[in-house]
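TA notes, week 10

Several of you asked for a full example with nothing omitted. So below is the full record: structure tokens for the whole chain, then the designed sequence directly under it. When grading your own attempts, check the secondary structure regions first.
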């Protein structure tokens, strides 16, 4: 039996140091806090005393903390000394988005160049779906693997699920001996920390004109989202809201009925010059501009959206995404809309998916806050403010920790 003491600025840091030297089969004998006045650095420290069986026939394998920034698709493989290692593919979604943005043409009517980039993006994502992310050689204990499988089954992509579970492994005081309830709580804490809600206080906190452009593919629920945002008392507070419909076929019957029921003004403006005129007359309202639904890959679609942006000069662009879509399709659709530099996402149709974890995946990959969550068709009821616990409850329902 070998006993040794390790120190760190926190308990997890001290335990990680112990695992790096002895592996993950350590036994925590004691932990104590050392006040700042008793340390040379003048900072508070946490000291742990651990033990490990010292058997000459079985040398403990050093424990290496899993990389938090591990690139999706990369694994620990050995390369022949005669054959140089192949450089990793640039397949991280955020990097691909940045590559597309870096090559953005001055005018968005050059769709051929953009669609060529998207074709390459589609191929790379297809390759990613065929790859299996490998665990470290020392593997994860059974309960950790179970939680990871639960996350991926609920729509959290493999890369993110692996990241948060390995982070839980790092932070757990019990390491390999942790129970599933403890692991779930650690994973919830990590996902909760990553969750980023849009701050509506900058809209409700002043009376200046605020223009929000809603963009998204056909059928994702942009018009319904406009009505839900306008009707929700906690989103825009007591501010007057104006909805501008740019639909080529005119406002929907649902939008007309909503206007009569809620008192929200709805204007029909199909031409760009009409939009400019409306923006000149607006003084202190919140204006929701509902753009026409169309495939993001349709010719000249982005050019039309850019014309709307020049006409209304939005303070925010909300990208509306439907949760009943496949995650890879969400990524591909969102990639094109990233050219418009959205400031937040609206997630709709939560009631039509069995994989609510896609909310964390898409928000994490796009690095955008969530503005609202739609969970049904009822305009005045089925809208949720972005709360991590709401999504976490859906992911871990039946597995309350």
């Amino acid at each position: 039996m070998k006993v040794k003491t390790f120190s760190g600025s926190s308990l997890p840091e001290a335990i990680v140091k112990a695992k790096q030297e002895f592996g993950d089969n350590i036994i925590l004998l004691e932990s104590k806090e050392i006040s700042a006045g008793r340390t040379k650095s003048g900072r508070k420290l946490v000291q742990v005393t651990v033990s490990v069986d010292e058997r000459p026939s079985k040398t403990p394998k050093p424990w290496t903390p899993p990389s938090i920034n591990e690139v999706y698709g990369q694994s620990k493989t050995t390369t022949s000394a005669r054959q140089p290692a192949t450089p990793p593919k640039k397949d991280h979604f955020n990097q691909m988005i940045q590559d597309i943005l870096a090559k953005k043409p001055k005018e968005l009517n050059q769709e051929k160049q953009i669609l060529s980039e998207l074709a390459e993006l589609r191929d790379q994502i297809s390759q990613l779906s065929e790859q299996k992310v490998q665990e470290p050689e020392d593997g994860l204990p059974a309960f950790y693997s179970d939680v990871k499988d639960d996350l991926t089954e609920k729509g959290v992509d493999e890369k993110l699920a692996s990241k948060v579970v390995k982070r839980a492994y790092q932070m757990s005081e019990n390491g390999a001996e942790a129970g599933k309830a403890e692991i779930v709580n650690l994973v919830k804490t990590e996902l909760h920390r990553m969750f980023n809600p849009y701050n509506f206080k900058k809209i409700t906190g002043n009376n200046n004109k605020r223009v929000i452009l809603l963009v998204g593919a056909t059928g994702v629920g942009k018009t319904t989202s406009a009505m839900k945002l306008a009707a929700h008392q906690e989103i825009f507070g007591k501010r007057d809201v104006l909805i501008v419909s740019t639909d080529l076929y005119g406002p929907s019957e649902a939008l007309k009925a909503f206007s009569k029921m809620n008192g929200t003004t709805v204007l029909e403006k199909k031409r760009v010059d009409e939009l400019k005129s409306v923006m000149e007359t607006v003084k202190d309202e919140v204006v929701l501009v509902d753009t026409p639904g169309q495939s993001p890959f349709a010719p000249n679609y982005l050019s039309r959206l850019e014309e709307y942006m020049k006409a209304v000069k939005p303070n925010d662009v909300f990208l509306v995404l439907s949760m009943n879509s496949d995650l890879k399709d969400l990524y591909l659709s969102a990639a094109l809309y990233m050219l418009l530099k959205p400031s937040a996402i609206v997630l709709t149709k939560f009631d039509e998916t069995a994989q609510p974890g896609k909310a964390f995946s898409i928000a994490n990959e796009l690095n955008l806050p969530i503005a609202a969550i739609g969970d049904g068709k009822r305009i005045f009821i089925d809208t949720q403010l972005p709360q991590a616990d709401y999504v976490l409850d859906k992911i871990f329902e039946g597995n309350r920790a």
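Residues 93-194 form one domain. Use that as a sanity check on your answer.
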